[in-house]
Target: Membrane protein
Amino acid sequence: MRRILVLTVVPLFVATVLAAALLWPRGGSPQTDGGADVPRYPGTVTRVVSEPCPPVPSVPEGTPRVGDGRCGTVDVRVDDGPTAGQQVQTPVPDGPGAPRVEVGDEVILVELADPTDPTTSNWNIAEHQRGTPMVWLAVVFAAAIVAFGRWRGLAALAGLAASFAILLTFVLPGIGAGRSPLLVAVVGAALIMFVVLYLTHGVTAQTSVAVLGTLGSLVLTGVLATIATAATHLTGFGSEDATTLSMFQGDVDLHGLLLAGIIIGSLGVLDDVTVTQAATVTELANANPGLTRLQLYRAATRVGRAHIASTVNTIVLAYAGASLPLLLLLTADSRPIGQILTSEFLAQEIVRSAVATLGLIAAVPLTTGLAAVVTAAGRTDATPSTDAPARRPQPDRSEALAALSSPRTVGSDEPDQPRIAPPSQATDRWPESNRSTDTAW
Model:
């Protein structure tokens, strides 16, 4: 069985590496003109002066209000750049999404040239500096994973770094270079799967089963996503980000990009399910080597059903959480609910969630069946294994009830002749705290 796994997994890995080499972007992704690069400098707020805003001329009723009317000036010390140490004055940030600043805040300054007089410039606060809090958050994140998972947690961090490296060096540049987004996503997801699973869980038969289950589910997810997006006539212009991308880089296949997003988004959840199912079958077989393939499959599938029942809700809530502004905007829509649900914006999220869930459901029987075949290899289904431990004798019910209802005992010289504790000692403490209760039972 190990030979069969090697002869199956190794060619798939070689094919993935060759496909990645052929699709690897050469020369980098095309550069887009995103406008002039505005200089940005770190600074520290030293003083904030608030003052009443001047009266606003009357506006027609129903006109949306922009900003919250914050006026005044902010003094900021420039911490880096050609004007380091200089005190500059900026207006209080105002408008949608403007940061609220206080004395001591570390901010990012931008220097804007005056269009009427290029020799003068104006300073404005763009946003807060977030580098230090994010570094500390990353340190706590890594420390918690390593403290709990130890060497496996360290391997998980290495797998996470490898995933981002593949996304940033292959998947995104490949799509930006004009390659097929669906093909790049499938190859990139397979490459991530091979690296992460074997790096995190080791090169074992159990991991190989999880790899095969994940790869099969990914292929099925890609087929289902292609059919579903074609049947619902989704174009990929279902978000503002996609529309903006089409303006800066018009040759990107947004429909293929939608399919690529479904596959990449499904990979993380598929890894979770396939690894869990493979590990469940292995643990069941170790706990009771007498279980047949069919018994292993049925028992592990029951675990998989419970896992899927919770994971389906996880997928839907994850997509809903990422699309809360969109959902809130749609609730204010006056159109009928049927038109809202079938609109491009919401239909895209529904298709994404449904396809990911279908691929997830398919991963359970596929991985569980493979794991049952591999784990039970070399044994016959008709007879239990000769190495199976003896079954524990079932105690008589009346004896168990008598043991529960009798007074507690203290230690005695003879293990088979326990003494009844005196009333004064019966409620003081458990007899011999360092003694296991398994012997008495």
Observations:
- Strands lie at 40-50, 72-78, 87-91, 106-113, 121-128, 409-410, 419-420.
